[in-house]
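Subject: for your reference before the review

Hello V.,

The reviewers asked for a structural picture of the protein, and I figured it would be easier to keep everything in one thread rather than splitting it across files. Below is the amino acid sequence we used in the manuscript, unchanged from the supplementary table.
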Amino acid sequence: MSHLCRRILLLGIVVCCSGYMAGTTHAEDAPDPSGEDWPIFLGPLVTGVSRETGLLESWPAEVPPVVWKRRVGTGYSAPSVRGKRTVVHHRLKDQDIVECMDSLTGETFWRYEYDTDYADPYGYNNGPRCTPLLTQDKCYTYGAQGKLVCLDLAEGKLIWERDTGKDWNVPDHFFGFGCTPILEGGLLIVLVGGQPNSGVVALDPTTGKTVWEAVGKETWDGVLQDENNNKPYKWTGREMIVSYSSPLAVTIHGQRHLLCLMRQGLVSLDPKTGELNFKYWFRARVNESVNAARPVVVGDKIFLSAAYETGAALLQVKPDGKDYDLVWRDRKGLSTHWSTTIAVKDHLYGFSGRHEEEAMLQCIELDTGKLVWETSGFGGDVSELRQDPKTGKILNAKTGQPDHWPFYGRGSKIIADGKFIVLGERGTLALVKISPDKFEEISRLSYPEIHYPAWAAPVLSRGKLYLRSEDHVLCLDLAKPQAE
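And here is what came back from the structure prediction:
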C-alpha cells in the first residue's frame, strides 16, 4: 500500500480538508542594506520571523529560480548565513564536516572535519542535529556525539573544542545531542544533559572553559508530577536530562530569563549565574519521548508544546519573575514534535502530531488554547492524484503529469514579508497567508533535491531562501525582480 493511500485510510476520509559576540569584521561580511543575516537557530529574532520585505507575492511555475545547489552529507541541522558565508554542518561516512560556503554561489571557502562513530539507535541518520551559531568572527557547532567546536569563521581554524559526552556524566539518550547552543550575556549556553546537576552549562565562548552548571537532581527531586496521582518525583541518578529544545533568552517584566525546556520540564534560570527562578513539570507520560520545540514567549506568557500526548500549556510569569500562574493546560492540544510554533498577535500557528500521517498545521487562540482551524495542507480531491509505485512521486491521475506531495506532514515554517513560508517534510514548499480566519495557501512548489525527510526549517537571508534535505542544500531567489 502506498504512503499516500495509508494517509488517506488513517485520516478516514477521501477528501482531505482543511546579541552577537563582538569580533573582527571582515570586508566581505559588511552589513548589506538589502536584507539581514540568519546566523543563528530560527533567525535574528530567534522566533522564525524575518524582517525582510520585497519578496515575491506568489510563485508562478517558472520561479523562484534555483541560485545554486550542493550535495551534502546527512544531518537535520539548518544552514546558517552571515554575509557571504553560509555554514552547513553535515556528515560523510565517519567524518563530521563543518563546511563554509559562498552564500551567492555555493562554492566552498573552507571545511573542518573530525572523526565520529555516532550511530542513531532508532535508525535515523547519523548526521548533526544542531544549527551552526555564527558571530562576526567565530563559528560554533554541536555534533550528534556531543563534540562542541569553536572555529575561526574566516578560515575554519580550530579555536577550542569540548567533548561534552566525556566531560560530563551524560546518560545514554534517544537521538544523540540535538540542542543548538545560544550566546547570552557573554556566555555560551549549552544543554549537555549531565548528571547530577549539569543539565545546562555556561561556557566562556572564547576559551570553552566552564563558568557555571545547573539543572538536575537539585531541580527535580521531589517535584510533584502531573502523572502517577501527582506523586513526588524520586530522582534515581540515571535520568536523561538532555533536551532537544534550544534554550531561549528573553526579557520578561524587565528581568532576563534563560528558558530551557528540559526532558522533565521548563526551567527559568538567571543567565549570569544559573540560579533557578522557577520550574514547571512538563513531560510525556511515556518513556520514549522528548521535548524538542522551543518555548514561545508573548509578553509575560510562555507557551509550551510537545508531542507524545504531552500537549500544550500556557504560563504567565509573575512580576517578580520568580513564579508563574498556569493559564491553561491541554494534553490534547497543539502537540508540536520539533517545529517551533510562531505567535502572531493573539494566535499561535504550529504543526501538531507525533506521526506524519496525523500531522496538522493548526491555529489556536493564545489565551485559551482553543483550536481555530487546522489543515493537512491539502484541500483537494485525493482521487485526482496517484502515486507512482516505482518512484513514489505524486502524479495527476488524469494527465500523468508530476504533482507536489499534497500533505505538509510534520512541517516547518518561517514568516517573511507578511506570509508563512512552509516546508513540508516531503519537500512541498508553500506560501501561505497569515490569518486566524481560515487557512489559505497562495502557491506551492517542490524541488527534487528537497525530499523526505526535510526536517530543517527554511532559512532566509537577503532575499535568498536556503533549504536542507538529507543530501542537498538548495538556494532559491525569492526577491522581486528589479525594475529596469
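For the response letter, the relevant points are probably these. The domain at 245-337 is CATH 2.40.10.480 (Thrombin, subunit H). Residues 15 and 167 are 54 Å apart (CA to CA).

Happy to draft the paragraph if you're swamped.

O.
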